[in-house]
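job 3f2a | input accepted
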Amino acid sequence: MGTLIEAVGQNVAVSRHEAMVEWPTDRSDFDVDRVRVGVVTASWNTRDLLARMLYGVLRVVEGGTIVEVVVVDNGSEDGSRELAQRLADEGIIRFIDNTSQRYHGPALTQGVNVLADLARHAEPVDLIWALDSDVFVLRPDVVRAAAAAMSSLDAVFAADPDDYAPSPPRVTTERLSMCSTLFDPAIVWQSGHRPFLEDGDPSRHMQADLTGAGHRRLAFPFCSDGYVLHLGRGTLAQVAARDATDNRYHSWAIERHEPHFALRPDGTELARSFERRYRAAVPDDSVDTLVAGLGDAS
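job 3f2a | predicted structure (298 res):
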């Protein structure tokens, strides 16, 4: 897919905002059966979770769907950066190596901006899938199903209901969760819509802008229908475990760092089942083994 993105996000001051690089076209036209998707994720000291998330994206999702993966690391010290660097060197992902904590929203914006810049020089992706690093992909049809629902209901943004309540895909004006967010950058990533911001809920301003502009947002049951498993609080668990008092969310993390599994009562069993599948492909956690296991899908 690409090598290391040089000098993007290097040695930058912590900011609550990252400026948007507008998508080069405002026309959206994609074939659901041949949809091209770019994945963006942010990481901070979640190496093991990141490896499993990438396995789901690269090995579980239907072949030919994921054409770009951008990992943005916010100064990890647990081997996440080394793993992402190696995957980038092998052409499996693109990597933005921040040397300081930029936080979730600005990091995601950096990643989407990379795809916006690439779209000026190569065939652009049709949809962007922003995934938390503690999301495990369970079903190969996840992207096709969500894209089809977006197309049929003329929506430009799809994510779980904030309460993860199961329901058929539906257009909504309610706030949506963003552990698994699929959106059309030709419409969403334009001036007048705020990008992902440094906030406890990085997409809430974007969602408000889209609704205010008359664009449809879709409540899609990524979690409740078992397309993905969201462990929840993966990064907060690291903030708490490392007692990272310089992190803005330290006090929140101390009280809320246990996984919630998107309120699924079978979450633990689903995680164990996914782990067995993952270990069949990636039997140990060495960088070489991870690269070999993840690279088989490229």
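job 3f2a | The two ends are 8 Å apart (CA to CA).
job 3f2a | closed
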